[in-house]
Specification:
Blueprint (H helix, E strand, L loop, with lengths): L3 H19 L6 H25 L11 H16 L6 H8 L3 H7 L3 H25 L4 H18 L1 H11 L8 H24 L8 H20 L7 H15 L6
Helix pairs in contact: 1-2, 3-4, 3-6, 6-7, 6-8, 6-9, 7-8, 7-10, 7-11
Length: 254
């Protein structure tokens, strides 16, 4: 089914041709055809140029089926929860048939896994980029903690889904995908940390211990909140942990 822009262009083009022919009854048929051909080409190109410029025919093309499924699933998972969302609802929301959905994803959990991995990638990128932007270990430790809390605030739906899904039993069946993702970011963090270890500016900790200190505490606070437990003002907690990380990693070079 053509989109609205394509239909509008086709209709305008057709009316233009009719008006052009009718406005010159004195022209012979050959001249009419020649004139129409020449002028209509310019008109047609102008219409399509306008459509492209305004995000028309090409830009209004429907997203790929896989992307539509993932987009709809995200919205439903975030608003209703994973367990409360059915395959039928995802199909209806995305306008995709049952068969088409299963062609791309064998189960609802497969959809959730792809969304979960994407969110984790977004989270790690956000936090590690903040760390990499600093030139000293104390500043990097503080920036990482702040970035972790910043992600929780800016992308609260994503973060909540990530927390809930990480605890789901079915996720344990897909450890390979998660290990591959974690390995990539662990190696990136190690690449950043290596020069500081060599200069004695970073305590002799394993990368996992370092990660637990920097990233684990903000996640623990978030889990406490998610569980409905009383947590002090998050802004206060952010400042306290940021100051703690800066002090903890302020070591004198050897």
């Amino acid at each position: 089914m053509p989109n609205d822009n394509a239909a509008a262009i086709s209709q305008s083009f057709f009316l233009f041709i009719l008006s052009l022919l009718g406005s010159h009854p004195d022209l012979g048929n050959d001249l009419k055809i020649e004139r129409c051909s020449r002028v209509s080409i310019h008109f047609f190109l102008a219409c399509f140029s306008q459509a492209f410029d305004k995000g028309g025919v090409m830009n209004a093309a429907k997203p790929k089926t896989r992307d539509r499924i993932l987009t709809s699933a995200r919205e439903l998972f975030f608003s209703k929860g994973l367990d409360e969302t059915s395959i039928a609802e995802i199909c209806k929301h995305s306008g995709v048939s049952n068969g088409s959905l299963f062609h791309h994803f064998p189960t609802k959990e497969a959809i959730a896994l792809e969304i979960f991995v994407g969110i984790r990638r977004h989270y790690w990128e956000h936090v590690i980029a903040a760390m990499e932007a600093e030139s000293t270990v104390p500043a990097a430790a503080e920036a990482s903690v702040r970035a972790a809390f910043d992600f929780q605030k800016k992308f609260s739906d994503e973060y909540t889904f990530m927390l809930d899904t990480a605890a789901a039993p079915w996720v344990l069946k897909h450890t390979t995908a998660l290990k591959d993702l974690n390995t990539a970011f662990v190696e990136r963090a190690m690449g950043w940390a290596a020069p500081y270890f060599m200069k004695g500016e970073l305590p002799a900790l394993s990368i996992h211990t370092f990660g637990a200190l920097i990233f684990g505490l903000p996640q623990w606070i978030a889990r406490e909140q998610r569980a409905g437990l009383s947590v002090p003002d998050i802004e206060v907690v952010t400042e306290e942990l940021a100051a703690l990380m800066r002090k903890l990693f302020s070591v004198e070079p050897k």
